Amino acid sequence: MSCLIALLRDARVVTGRDVATGEVEQDKQELAGRWLGAVGYMTLFDQIGSAYRPSNEAELSGQAFIKALQYFAPEIGELERDALYALRCSFVHDYSLINIPFMGSQQLRERRTHHFMLTASDEAGPIVRLPSQRWDGSIDRCRLSNATWVNLRALGDLAEQVFCRLVAHHEAGTLTIALPGGLNELQRRYAMTIRPIRFVDP
Predict the structure, then answer these.
(1) 202 occurs within a structural domain
(2) 70 alpha-carbon distance from chain centroid
(3) Is-contact 31 14, C-beta < 8 A?
């Protein structure tokens, strides 16, 4: 079994999606905005960006999360990608709604400095809504007017779309393993065997 499939399954279960299709189930709409489910989907971006790229795309540098969106969701703009990466960092490292990076260029740190407001609406709209005035990183100056809004249901939909595009590239023969160790590394890192539990008589 692939770790990627296990990750996708778990993210779907947590967010009330059909395990086979990824569609949000009618009687589980309220689960679509679960933070842990969003963490799962963000980890999916990390793994995809680490392990794969379309064969017709030049190899990119940078964080795996960002590369997954550049390769498989190019419609997401640079500032939106940075905002999603900032939310990924705040969730994964601190399970919080504030990200203040301390590494990288001044420009990059500014782009990834956000305080977040979250929604899980199924209405059509952007995944990320950036503030008209950038937040300066001061805790005392968190305001609705400088908050970055992220729709976690739409984030899950994006992750499902990225996975579908990955599968389409695989089926078309246009998917490349991006890991330095190629197929061997992919199998070692991301494949697993589920073994039955054997009970031994005392």
Answers:
(1) no
(2) 12
(3) yes
Task: State pLDDT tens for residues 21-38.
Answer: 999 999 999 999 999 999
Reported as a single tens digit per residue, the pLDDT across 58-85 is 999 999 999 999 999 999 999 999 999 9
- What's the domain range around 16? 3-190
Letter for the amino acid at 51? A
Let me know if residue 62 belongs to a domain.
yes
Q: Which run of H or E residues covers position 118?
A: strand 114-119
Do the domain assignments include residue 108? yes
Q: Residue 37: left (phi > 0), alpha (psi -120 to 50), or beta?
A: alpha
**Domain total for the chain?**
1
Is 132 part of a structural domain of the chain?
A: yes
Distance CA 76, CA 82 (A): 10
* Six-digit token string for 12: 């779907």
Are 191 and 77 a contacting pair, CB within 8 Å? Answer: no
